[in-house]
Design goal:
mainly alpha, 18 helices, 425 residues, globular, single chain
């Protein structure tokens, strides 16, 4: 399922200064002119280190898609109720919202290797303990689940900080953001499927162990790449608020909470429709179709995106279109028609998340690029949890994601600072 789970990153040259770029990664002077047409995904991946960093980041984040399903299956196998198992999965989903900003700030202050290695070791230890000890002892299980979630390495924020180092210009960086947002769909589609497959073939403990191994392997490959080893954030001003200092940042992050809520509510709506129409296949098909549409939307957005940096009106238009696309789902339709209509908001999810991520990067004060992505991820995760929690009591109606999308659009329209003018340092 799409989650969102996105040096200083893409912004106009008149904005904040970029983090120091080591000579080996500076593009030739001729490459600084933005291309007439937006670069494609392959144009990003052909640059040195980009393929390694992206693949390692996706593998390192695979546990975010695997662990919730593996936890539910492990808890049920140990005799816990579905309610308890779901609570454990929700706890794991929320925990990164508190850990990622802290590890992101550590990355901005101390470099990427330390928080990546520290987080990966914490996740691997906690998941290995769960795999070995099981979930019978509930208190120990809760502690391990919280540590495994809060310790998630800042791979997403680190990757977006490094795009500014390994890519030649802002046009490539904007496409790289779209590529990363699209790749996240893989995490939340492949992760649950892999956890179910390993549990079926072996056991839930094996799925948890595999998630631990994936986090370790992905983080190690990512953090040992030369750009990650030598990257340093721009000097940052000592500020109690940090990333939250720019006034426009706060409504933007709150809008992302509601954006995440649309996805959390969608999962519940899929289950309700599957039960009402006696179509058990629909519960899994709906999030899969939404994510597949997100991948397609990301590819199309990369191809047709503006050649200049996105403006506030782009964010507002995407938010409004995303909200409108939920309206047809309110009609009492057969499951196949609902599945087809879910492609509409799904196709806009990745473009909206991409432009929101670029806006967060542009607003972030110097030296806070990785931490800012941590806050973005935290907002999305809180929204996912809240959407799921509210959708159940409200009957799993598609009105819940519609309301969340509408509130997201309203808050996006409430922004007052232009994208090209971050708060003064």
């Amino acid at each position: 399922m799409a989650h969102a789970q996105v040096s200083d990153v893409p912004r106009p040259s008149t904005a904040l200064a970029r983090a120091p770029q080591p000579p080996p990664f500076r593009a030739p002077a001729g490459d600084e002119t933005p291309p007439r047409t937006p670069p494609a995904f392959r144009d990003v991946l052909r640059h040195r280190y980009c393929r390694r960093l992206l693949i390692a980041s996706v593998i390192g984040r695979l546990s975010l898609g695997m662990v919730p399903v593996a936890l539910i299956l492990a808890a049920q196998a140990d005799g816990h109720s579905l309610a308890t198992a779901s609570l454990l999965a929700a706890l794991y989903g929320i925990a990164p919202a508190f850990g990622l900003p802290l590890l992101g700030r550590m990355a901005d202050l101390r470099g990427l290797p330390l928080p990546c290695h520290l987080g990966a070791a914490l996740v691997a230890t906690a998941l290995s303990a769960l795999a070995l000890a099981g979930t019978s002892h509930l208190l120990l299980t809760v502690v391990c689940v919280v540590l495994a979630g809060a310790g998630c390495p800042p791979l997403e924020g680190g990757l977006r900080s490094l795009w500014n180092v390994v890519l030649p210009d802002d046009a490539h960086i904007r496409t790289a953001y779209t590529l990363d947002s699209s790749a996240q769909q893989i995490v939340y589609v492949t992760g649950p499927a892999l956890a179910i497959a390993v549990t079926t073939w072996l056991s839930p403990a094996a799925a948890l162990a595999l998630a631990a191994a994936a986090t370790l392997a992905g983080s190690l490959v990512f953090a040992t790449a030369r750009p990650a080893r030598i990257w340093q954030a721009a000097p940052r001003r000592r500020d109690r608020l940090g990333v939250l200092r720019p006034p426009a940042m706060r409504p933007l992050l709150i809008s992302l909470v509601f954006l995440g809520a649309t996805v959390g509510a969608l999962d519940v709506a899929g289950i309700v429709v599957a039960e009402r129409q006696d179509a058990p296949w629909f519960a899994g098909a709906l999030p899969a179709a939404f994510s597949a549409a997100g991948l397609l939307g990301g590819v199309l957005f990369a191809r047709f995106q503006p050649t200049a940096a996105p403006r506030p009106r782009h964010l507002l238009l995407l938010g409004a279109a995303f909200a409108v696309c939920w309206l047809p789902l309110l009609a009492p339709l057969p499951a196949a028609a609902v599945l087809a209509l879910a492609i509409l908001p799904g196709a806009l999810f990745v473009p909206l998340l991409t432009v929101a991520s670029l806006t967060v990067a542009a607003l972030a004060p110097p030296g806070t690029s990785t931490e800012s992505v941590g806050w973005l991820s935290s907002a999305m995760r809180l929204g996912l949890a809240g959407g799921t929690a509210l959708a159940g009591p409200l009957g799993g109606n598609f009105a819940v994601p519609l309301m969340a999308a509408a509130l997201c659009a309203v808050l996006l329209g409430a922004r007052t600072a232009p994208l090209s003018a971050p708060a003064a340092a």
